[in-house]
Every structure is written in structure tokens, then in C-alpha cells.
Amino acid sequence: MSTKLKIAIIGSTGYGGVELIRLLASHPLAEVTSVISSSSAGTPIAEGYPHLTGIREELLDDVEPDAIKAKADVVFLATPPGVAAKLAPELLEAGLKIIDLSGDFRLKSAELYKQWYNKEAAEEAYLQQAVFGLAEIYGDQVLDASFISNPGCYPTATLLGLIPAVKEGWIDPSTIIIDAKSGVSGAGRGASLGTHYSELNENLKAYKLNKHQHIPEIEMVLSDVATKPVVTTFTTHLVPMTRGIMSTMYASVQGERSTNDFIELYRSYYEGRRFVRIRPEGQWPATKEVWGSNYCDIGFAVDQRTGRVTIVSVIDNLVKGAAGQAIQNMNLMMGWDETLGLQFVPAYP
Ligand SMILES: NC(=O)C1=CN([C@@H]2O[C@H](COP(=O)(O)OP(=O)(O)OC[C@H]3O[C@@H](n4cnc5c(N)ncnc54)[C@H](OP(=O)(O)O)[C@@H]3O)[C@@H](O)[C@H]2O)C=CC1
Ligand SMILES: CC(=O)N[C@@H](CCC(=O)OP(=O)(O)O)C(=O)O
């Protein structure tokens, strides 16, 4: 009998779920024992995803908590907002470990959740119990957790790019502007007018200005790090590519700091964290340079003329922004090396 950790994936037919399947297929200590769908139970997952032919031939299971409890030790939820809020509590109470990829448990205020997601929040006790799994920053809390709320894709790129400078007081948090761009897989597999080919191809669109649900998530963490309330301007754009997020951030520098000072600060802050790579002076990361990998690459340019720093941070939204970071959190929860099953070299070109 296999001694591997048993994994169930709810939402396995979505982009986040199918990326979990891809990454977990080569995990040395974990195996997927149930792929779950609320709409296609009883059909083979490879029918909707032929790239899984010969890799995952089993039928999709229904969302049935008792069956999940019998088949799994850890449950990943890669479901739309509102689903995990209802499903996670019962699974947690049954003793399962939960990693939720949706936004349902990230915000610790039910009121904020309702305001930004336009839905009723999960029960207060569970909002408080869920650990915000930004692994490089809150890894110590993840170690003891049985319930992880995986950060959003944009917040992952943005926060990893901002936290050291905010924490050290090297930038004025009230001046931060975040200009973020995402590939279309960030919107999930469902078809919509805004994401179909002829709307997207040869096009660049800003969306959800001042209304994006990741604004309170970014502000929650920056306020925690700055130990005072921080508000930011955060603008998202849709780019005609499949994977990738670039967050370009601007802020006023406090004190005399060069580009190299920032590079040294970040290298020291992230020392030993294998998934954050700090670029040398004059080199700014591109999304293709992290494609298919769990890396977050960060580059800097201080402008002595304006007194501002530009910070460029890139991730693959489906890996470090979703499934990869979720597996990194699982590794930490289990007391394993955080890089297990995640040591991919980015696919280039
Ligand atoms: N795409 C990305 O880059 C990122 C996504 N996320 C978040 O992860 C979650 C999943 O995103 P993504 O995979 O892109 O979305 P998709 O739309 O691609 O997939 C969502 C899946 O959820 C399942 N689902 C829908 N309703 C229910 C329900 N009531 N009960 C159980 N399952 C349900 C659907 O499968 P079925 O009908 O078969 O059940 C669907 O395949 C979202 O909350 C998203 O915001 C977070 C970070 C990055
Ligand atoms: C390109 C695109 O549409 N991206 C999505 C990201 C969705 C996401 O990850 O949402 P949660 O973090 O709330 O789960 C968006 O901007 O809403």
C-alpha cells in the first residue's frame, strides 16, 4: 500500500485544479487520490483535458464530503468564490487539512469580504483560523497550520516585490502605485465575452479600476508589515498571453538608496528562500523567464532624479500564483522541504 499523502482536488476541472494535477504528478511524497467535479462526476477527467491521457484516466468524483474524508488527508479547493466558504468547515472538522486557492478566507474581516466579493463571508471562526499562505513571509505560521488560505495571484507577485522595502522603511507606503498585468488563464477556464480570442488578441485592457478584489488583500498585508494602515492604487490589465503576471510598482524612496542597495536588501531578506530570485542591476524580469515554474523574479531601478524606485515582479499565475504556492504550503505544513515536487526550470522560450 502506498504511504504517500493522499490528496483530493475540488475544482479539478478548472485551470487551478488541473495545474495541481500536473504538479502533483511528480511529487515524491504525495499522490492525488480523488479528482472532484460538481458538474461532470462519472466522466474521465482526460475527456475534458486530453493532455492527461494515460496520466489520469480515472472518473471524476462528486463533491461528497463523506467520500472525500475516506479518500484523502489533504483537500485542495480550486473553486470560485463562495464555494470553499461552505465546504471547508465540514472537511476541517473531519480532521482533513485544507488548502483553499480562492479568496474566501484571505480577508480576516467578513465585512471587507462582502464589500469586495459581493458575497456573504465564511463563518468568523474559520476566517480567523485560516493562515494566509504567503510562504516566504508567513512560512512560520504555515508550519503549524491545518488550514491555509492561498494568496491571490496578483497579491503574490505584488507583496513579494514590496514587503522588504516597506518593512525596512525604505519606501513611503502612502506613495505606492501598482501597475499589474495578467495573462488570460488568470480568469479561469470559463468562456466570457472579455476573454474570447477576438476581444483579447492584439489588445491590452485595463479592468476593475479601484474595484479589484485583490486591493484589500494587498492592503491587509502591507498594513501588517508597515504596522500602520496602508492604502494603494492598484490597476490590473489583461494581456493577450496565456500565463504570467507582471506587477510594476512605483514608490518614493526614503533615505539615500541606490538600485544596488535595494538588490542587497532583498537578497538578504529572501536568503534561503529558493523561489524568490533577485535580478542584478540593469536586468528586469520578463514573464517568460518564470513560465511554468514556482519562481518569483524581482528587479529594481532607483531614479535619483525623481526620488522614486520602480520594482518589477513576475510570476506564473497558475504556479507561484496558485497551484505551485499551494503545494509549497502543503510541503511546509507537512514539515517537508518547501521545494519538494516544485523544482522546475522555467520553460523557455
Ligand atoms: N486562474 C488563476 O490564475 C488563479 C485562480 N485563483 C482562484 O482559484 C479558484 C479557481 O480558479 P480557476 O481554476 O482559474 O477557475 P476555473 O473557472 O477554471 O475553475 C473553477 C472550477 O470550480 C468548479 N466549481 C464550480 N462551482 C463549483 C461548486 N459549486 N462546487 C464545487 N466545484 C465547483 C468548476 O468545476 P466543476 O463544474 O467541474 O465542478 C470549475 O472547473 C478561483 O477562486 C480563483 O479566483 C487564484 C489564483 C490564481
Ligand atoms: C485575468 C483575471 O481575470 N484575473 C482574475 C484573478 C482571479 C483570482 O485569482 O481571484 P481570487 O484571487 O479572488 O481568487 C481577476 O482579475 O479577477
Mean pLDDT value: 97
Q: Tell me the strand order in the biggest sheet.
A: 8-9-7-10-13-12-11
Topology, number of strands: 13
CA-CA gap between termini = 41 Å
Q: How is the main sheet built?
A: 7 strands, mixed
User: At the third CATH level, what is the topology name of the largest domain?
Assistant: Dihydrodipicolinate Reductase, domain 2
> What would CATH call the architecture of the largest domain?
2-Layer Sandwich
Q: From the helix content, strand content and strand pairing, which structural class follows? A: alpha/beta
Can you identify the CATH superfamily of the largest domain?
Answer: Dihydrodipicolinate Reductase, domain 2
* Name of the CATH first level of the largest domain: Alpha Beta
The overall number of domains is 2
**Rough shape?**
globular
Helix content: 25-40%
Low-confidence stretches: none
Radius of gyration: 20 Å
- Beta content: 15-25%
State the helix count: 12
Ligands and ions found: NADPH dihydro-nicotinamide-adenine-dinucleotide phosphate, N-acetyl-L-glutamyl 5-phosphate
N-to-C series of helices and strands: EHEHHEHEHHEHEHEHEHEEHEEEH
Pathway: Amino-acid biosynthesis; L-arginine biosynthesis; N(2)-acetyl-L-ornithine from L-glutamate: step 3/4
Subcellular location: Cytoplasm
Catalytic activity: N-acetyl-L-glutamate 5-semialdehyde + phosphate + NADP(+) = N-acetyl-L-glutamyl 5-phosphate + NADPH + H(+)
GO molecular function: N-acetyl-gamma-glutamyl-phosphate reductase activity; NAD binding; NADP+ binding
